[in-house]
């Protein structure tokens, strides 16, 4: 199977690549930085893992950068994982429109444009593909300082549900994985006290396991999940 995974350079995206590769798939990764961690995985799975450095904030040039110069229609896509994202954290009274737009470019507009071309690729090759968006528990429970970030994830959830409705007749599925708090670069600026307060809101009282998120993504991409579409699947340690 051929999969396009964004945000592959570290954290959840790198783990998704690792799980998909371990199942014998081909993975086309996108991020800005070509990290040592990614290179290590690339050497373990030579010929199965590819990388192109693309700044996904440039939503105007997505077709050229991703599809004309990298994942062309010669590559028949079976799935797309929209994992790359950035967090703009602040309280609403400090909202800055330029920062909000910059985050929406990466978290919402680019994934929507990529979905457009992924669907076209799948339609051309008559593939019953699967699309996964990575959301966040903050869109469901609410956290102080995350209103802008959470709103970008809420937009993706609505987009996914309606994509599922629009293309289900052709066998194309779209689902969302909703992770809880994970220990990655994105959450590295939180203090131990802030993390403890977040963990207290979960049933399992700990950070969400990155591998569990990646395994869920791989399951939803696979035929094992052939009857699952338009869903939000929470992998969040039972966050209340
Ligand atoms: N960490 C958490 O607690 C948490 C909780 C819930 C949901 N999530 C979601 O889980 C997903 C993965 O997050 P993570 O924790 O693994 O974060 P991370 O470690 O910060 O990784 C983010 C990935 O996105 C890529 N990226 C960011 N901006 C980009 C841009 N402009 N162009 C291209 N690539 C870009 C980064 O690559 P480069 O920097 O190399 O470009 C990196 O590979 C995200 O959708 C996030 O919103 C995270």
TrEMBL record:
InterPro entries in the cross-refs? NAD(P)-bd_dom_sf, Sc_DH/Rdtase_CS, SDR_fam
- Top-rank taxon, per record: Bacteria
- One Pfam match, given by its short name, reads adh_short_C2
Question: PROSITE patterns per the record?
Answer: ADH_SHORT
GO MF term list? oxidoreductase activity
Keywords from UniProt, A to Z, are:
Oxidoreductase
SUPFAM superfamilies from the UniProt entry = NAD(P)-binding Rossmann-fold domains
Entry-linked PANTHER family? DEHYDROGENASES, SHORT CHAIN, ESTRADIOL 17-BETA-DEHYDROGENASE 8-RELATED
Family, as annotated: Belongs to the short-chain dehydrogenases/reductases (SDR) family.
Which protein, by its recorded name, is this?
SDR family NAD(P)-dependent oxidoreductase
Classification from the root reads: Bacteria, Pseudomonadati, Bacteroidota, Bacteroidia, Bacteroidales
């Amino acid at each position: 199977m051929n999969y396009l995974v964004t945000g592959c350079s570290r954290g959840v995206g790198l783990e998704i690549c690792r799980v998909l590769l371990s199942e014998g798939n081909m993975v086309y990764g996108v991020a800005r930085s070509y990290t040592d961690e990614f290179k290590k995985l690339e050497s373990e799975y030579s010929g199965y893992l590819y990388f192109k450095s693309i700044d996904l904030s440039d939503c105007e040039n997505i077709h050229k950068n991703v599809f004309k110069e990298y994942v062309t229609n010669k590559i028949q896509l079976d799935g797309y994982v929209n994992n790359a994202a950035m967090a703009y954290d602040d309280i609403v009274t400090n909202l800055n429109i330029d920062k909000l737009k910059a985050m929406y470019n990466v978290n919402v507009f680019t994934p929507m444009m990529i979905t457009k071309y992924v669907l076209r690729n799948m339609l051309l090759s008559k593939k019953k593909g699967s699309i996964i968006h990575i959301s966040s528990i903050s869109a469901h429970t609410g956290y102080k300082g995350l209103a802008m970030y959470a709103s970008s994830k809420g937009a993706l959830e609505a987009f996914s549900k309606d994509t599922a409705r629009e293309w289900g007749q052709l066998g194309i599925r779209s689902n969302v994985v909703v992770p809880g708090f994970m220990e990655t670069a994105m959450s590295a600026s939180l203090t131990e006290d802030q993390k403890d307060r977040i963990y207290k809101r979960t049933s399992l009282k700990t950070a969400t396991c990155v591998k569990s998120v990646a395994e869920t993504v791989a399951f939803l991409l696979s035929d094992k999940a052939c009857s699952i579409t338009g869903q939000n699947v929470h992998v969040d340690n039972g966050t209340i």
